[in-house]
What does this fold into?
Amino acid sequence: MERLCGAGIVFFFKGKVSEKLQKIFNGFAAGVMFAASIWSLIIPAIDMETEQGKIGWIPAAIGILIGVIFLVFSDYILDKSINNKHKRNKMLGFAITLHNIPEGMAVGIVFASALNGNFGVDIMSAMALSIGIAIQNFPEGMAISLPYKSENVSNKKAFLLGTLSRSS
It folds into this structure.
C-alpha cells in the first residue's frame, strides 16, 4: 500500500520532473532508506549478537560487506546486459526490487523469533521493524516512478513500474 502511495506521486506532475526536484526526492528516499537500514536492521542485529555474549558488529559488518560485493557484481553484470535509454532507471528498479528479498526475510525472522520467544525479541520489536520498512517503502515507489516520468513515460506506466518493484 505504501509503495502505491509513493509511486502515485507521478500523478501530481505534468510533463517532466525537474532535475533539481528529482534530486531532492532521491535525497529524501536515500535518507529514509539509510535510516531504516541502520535503526531497523543493523542496530538490532548488533544488539542480538551482543546479547548472546559475542562481538556484535562482526556479523553485521560481514553481512554488509557481502551485500556490497553482491551489488558491485550485479551492477557489473547489468551494465553489460542493459543497453537503452532507461538503463539507469532499470538498474535502480532492479536494486530496489532485489533488496525487498532480505527485507521480507528480516520481517519474517523477527516475527517468528517473537512468536517463539527466541533471541529476546518481542512482538513490539517485530512491529517496529515492520513499520520502519513500511515507512521506507513510500520513498522507494517514488524513487522508481519519478525518473521514468522524467523520461516522458506516461503517468500510468511510471506508476505501474513503481508499484511492481515490490516483490515481498
